UniProtKB/TrEMBL annotation:
Residues 22-86 form the RNA polymerase sigma-70 region domain. Coiled coil: none annotated. One of its GO terms (molecular function) is DNA binding. SUPFAM superfamilies: Sigma2 domain of RNA polymerase sigma factors, Sigma3 and sigma4 domains of RNA polymerase sigma factors. It comes from Sphingomonas suaedae. One of its GO terms (biological process) is DNA-templated transcription initiation. Belongs to the sigma-70 factor family. ECF subfamily. Residues 116-167 form the RNA polymerase sigma factor 70 region 4 type domain. Keywords: Sigma factor, Transcription, Transcription regulation. This is Sigma-70 family RNA polymerase sigma factor. It holds the Pfam family Sigma70_r2. InterPro entries: RNA_pol_sigma-70-like, RNA_pol_sigma-70_dom, RNA_pol_sigma70_r2, RNA_pol_sigma70_r4_t2, RNA_pol_sigma_r2, RNA_pol_sigma_r3/r4-like, WH-like_DNA-bd_sf.
Amino acid sequence: MTAPIDHGATAQDRLYADACTAHAPAIARLARAIERDADRARDLEQDIHLALWRSLAAFDGRCALGTWVYRVAHNAAATHAARGARSAKLVTLEEAGDLPASTNPEFEAGEAQTLARIRALIAALEPADRGVMLLYLEGLEARVIAEITGLSSTNVAVKVHRIKAMLARHFAQGDPA
């Protein structure tokens, strides 16, 4: 979802257009990671965009625009989940993004099995830990994740380290997810 740029646009509108240009795909992935149902995911994505546009009236530049976007998206998704999305099924990581296709069926089958195990392990995490891990998988640094979630950088780093260690243990032991 990209916002058209209007010459009479306000600063808020310009910030929103910049935020959409840079972060709309990540917002869409977050919505699909929270909601399995495509319609509910689109609704959540629209809710995030609306919350983002409204919040930009208060944006003062004390943090990076990207940090602001992720913080608003994280909070809107948490509010959405608390409002009754408890009964909705979670979306797998594979469904949350398009994965590159392989030309080797054996490799593809092994990769699918590995991804299924990872998805199941991440889906079993507490919501706060799952949120931290999804932000980590988006490539964000612990410092940025801390700003978004309100946790300390150290706490984020410890959570990521522990989750990665748990994944490694399950894979080393050959445990199914």
